[in-house]
């Protein structure tokens, strides 16, 4: 209607309005008058004004009533609503009762009915979401398991491939990028046996390449030290090698590999001795020391973050650090007792138990004992703490009972009014001394928020656990003090999936870190070995295996629920190390393959003790068997003999002497390896090994076997037969020359050598006949054939009734049929002027060669 009174309206528009006015007038006349509504008359201008007012009123009515009410309220309070709207950064919308429940639901029954229906709908929706999430997680887990299985099968298929080399084959060409080796593994520098200091990472290397390089240097140093019976700390060396890479400088993850290596170093306790403590408990003590080291770093960081509040000053003592830390931690609780100057004022906060707890938590045991002995509040606790420190937690049953009774008293009493939380540290300390499973479980159940971090939780559990001994089992059972053991902690931690610890893979090292802290080293290694990614955690897993195996502690870290023996745990580590070394082998880097193979065999033998022969008989047998198997793999490769045996001898100048010091052991190993070479068809290597051992007769026997095959190939017109035969004859002559001047050959060996020499000469004569026949010199070939003494074809000699053919070597026997064929072919091409050839032919089928002659006659034509 805005255009009703507008200027410039056309005749058409006015005509329309006139028609509308006439229609309205007629309707008004037809309508019956009513007393309720008075008659109103408005012209067009008035209608336009009223329409405009009505539109403005409608717009105002559409605005939210809450906004208008708020604006009026702000105006009454003198607040500018427009300015408030501009300054407002955020707001919150809340539903009203009417938004949730209909206005009709005014009774209690209707309200409860609506509430019940909403609860059911919410439960159904929540269950649907949980089911969908569980289904997705299950499908992802199935896919991941399938992928891991495929990857494992593929890796195992690679490891099962024959380790026998193929001639002129590029072994490194088939390796894919997932492999454990760096691409430069077969470089001249890496395989030249340079010192570890020279095998350093270079720029533009991947993380896997860098780790492999520095770790390989440490493995070399480790093997060298063990071979020379020198002390060596592998955990310390591996940690230093990793830190030299500076890979954890960003600090985005809560657990880094540097932290894991420090834990490994603490677990094995290099440089430390734990007296009167079992291997398992020494691992527990090591894990606890690592957590204390981490808490000390946290305390120092806290003090440095607020130096004014900490007020450490020039004091550098451990107790002063703890008190400076407490000033920051308890800054909102008032004056602390060690800072109070005027005791007549408001009583200060008693921090006795806080000081003792944090001293122990940080590894300051002497300071904790000092605070307990000097405090009136902890006077009765001081002797209990002193015994716990002295015995590494193995307190007497009387001490444990006293601490248990004190725990019961505090749990019944609860937190005292006005002092919330401070006695909790006292409760924790008595629970640690007690070490009772029932008290610890009750404490954690009643106070679920007792620990802020999982490190605090694990430190408490590791400090409280005991080793259950049969000697004290009766006393413990009588008092009801069943100790909290390592298996209890492991079972509790294993109830949660790995994704719970790793935050669905965002912090991947947390789970293996937890496993290592709970002395489940083997599951931790297996978990890391499956993490084949850019971070190279599988490379770390191999060298963690080497470290723990070298210290002989892998059997103690199998974990709860795993029914594995000592050798099973060692075999797992051996398999991981061997598979890693086999990649070097396939790359052609025999030097590093040998280093890792030596560690794989040592893992089977119990680690360091296997190098010096201190392991038990079964471990020594397992190590020897594995070492022979792995060294044979290297020996069969191109360059393996040169690496293990050196330029000459049986290993005195090579690497073999480092792993087999006894001459007899080396000789037996090499003879077995040569036999395996023969079975695999690697005759050249078999001959070379037999020559190194001094078994010249066996070397000649192998040469004669190969020469026999070459002569037969020549008879079949194969092209490479003659060249191969010539090389073999030369090799046989060299063996005879070496044996002649060797002092190792006995009289019996010389007789065997003479027998093989005769066979060599017989085969050489047959080869000469073939050459003459192929050159067309049939008369000469026939003459040389008749001269062969073992055929007895001389027409002037009498027929031989004794079958001397049986005494021929099988290698010569294999050549006789083809030789006789050549002889017959020569006879066919020579004229028999005096009957000599007929006499020779007749001798082919009588006497010593009758059986062979029958076969020849079936396929030949005689003139």
Structural class: mainly alpha
Largest sheet: none
Number of strands: 0
**In which range does the helix fraction lie?**
55-70%
Hey, roughly how much beta strand do the residues contain? under 5%
Family: Belongs to the nucleoporin interacting component (NIC) family.
Organism: Triticum turgidum subsp. durum (Durum wheat)
Pfam families: Nic96
Keywords: Membrane, mRNA transport, Nuclear pore complex, Nucleus, Protein transport, Translocation, Transport
Could you give the topology of this structure?
Elements: H1 11-30, H2 44-62, H3 65-76, H4 81-87, H5 97-100, H6 108-160, H7 188-191, H8 207-227, H9 234-243, H10 257-268, H11 279-305, H12 307-310, H13 318-329, H14 352-361, H15 365-374, H16 381-390, H17 397-413, H18 422-434, H19 437-446, H20 454-464, H21 473-479, H22 486-493, H23 498-502, H24 510-517, H25 521-529, H26 537-550, H27 566-587, H28 590-604, H29 608-611, H30 617-635, H31 640-645, H32 656-659, H33 663-680, H34 683-693, H35 696-715, H36 721-740, H37 747-774, H38 778-787, H39 810-813, H40 816-828, H41 836-843, H42 850-859
